Amino acid sequence: MTYIEFKADRKISLKKFLLDRNISNRAYKKIIKNSILVNDKKIEKNIKLNSDDNIKIIIEDEILNYEPINKELEILYEDQDIIAIDKDANLTVNSKGQESLANYISYYFWKNNIKSQVRFINRLDMNTSGIILIARNPYAQAYYQKLIENNDFDKEYLALVEGNLEIDKTIVLKINYDENKKKMKIADEGYEIKTYFKNIKLYDKFSLIYCKIFTGKTHQIRISLSNLNHPIIGDKLYGSKYKLDRFLLHSYKVSFIRFRDGEKITILSRPNFDNYLNSSLLRSDS
């Protein structure tokens, strides 16, 4: 059994203390029934805390929810609550019936005696590479997903697109899912997406673009760049003419305030776009 441990810094009610640390009302109701200790004593009701009181939230052991498959992972960051993985392209996150990142994480949990289900904090398309975060307990997952919902979790990408795109602006669109074409489409009514784009480097026929998303909608970077007539290289679904084994979009940076201590954390990952720029795959227009 493991714990999430805090120390009270002033006189305050237990409930307010937990809510101030981004424990939800729903989670609080569960915790107060049978999952919290104050100064190592079981507590089952809201009490007044004193300065320096020690609070422990009990994290119950769980059974793995995916079949473990032994595959080496590139771990970029890890603490008591989360793991950050550098995901390869051509790898699904957790699709049923396919070998997935969830299977690899499950094996890592088993090997390291982490008795938790696999809970993804963010997701990437199968052919997008880069940083994915996995929670090691349900309270961390709830905290980080709330950060994402409130736009307090910075997600930044790099994309290699077709043509010379000189840009430095935020683009807002509305999109909906096109059932017939199985992709997102620009629509008068739909989900609003907001993305900032800036060109970093121009090549002869391509552009390296920095992208920062302010909404977390499916395919929002892909459809926004396609709408500018500069699709991501290899993204056949949104108009790329290049036949690659992936599309060249990479989640290269995430920043957030850490769950337990409020420290600012930044995680970086470098894309392998150079491997494609220097290959024959992009030297032909076919």
UniProtKB/TrEMBL annotation:
<dbReference type="InterPro" id="IPR006145">
    <property type="entry name" value="PsdUridine_synth_RsuA/RluA"/>
</dbReference>
<dbReference type="GO" id="GO:0140098">
    <property type="term" value="F:catalytic activity, acting on RNA"/>
</dbReference>
<feature type="domain" description="Pseudouridine synthase RsuA/RluA-like">
    <location>
        <begin position="82"/>
        <end position="226"/>
    </location>
</feature>
<keyword id="KW-0413">Isomerase</keyword>
<dbReference type="GO" id="GO:0000455">
    <property type="term" value="P:enzyme-directed rRNA pseudouridine synthesis"/>
</dbReference>
<dbReference type="GO" id="GO:0003723">
    <property type="term" value="F:RNA binding"/>
</dbReference>
<dbReference type="InterPro" id="IPR050188">
    <property type="entry name" value="RluA_PseudoU_synthase"/>
</dbReference>
<keyword id="KW-0694">RNA-binding</keyword>
<dbReference type="GO" id="GO:0009982">
    <property type="term" value="F:pseudouridine synthase activity"/>
</dbReference>
<dbReference type="Pfam" id="PF00849">
    <property type="entry name" value="PseudoU_synth_2"/>
</dbReference>
<dbReference type="InterPro" id="IPR020103">
    <property type="entry name" value="PsdUridine_synth_cat_dom_sf"/>
</dbReference>
<protein>
    <recommendedName>
        <fullName>RNA pseudouridylate synthase</fullName>
    </recommendedName>
</protein>
<dbReference type="InterPro" id="IPR006224">
    <property type="entry name" value="PsdUridine_synth_RluA-like_CS"/>
</dbReference>
<comment type="similarity">
    <text>Belongs to the pseudouridine synthase RluA family.</text>
</comment>
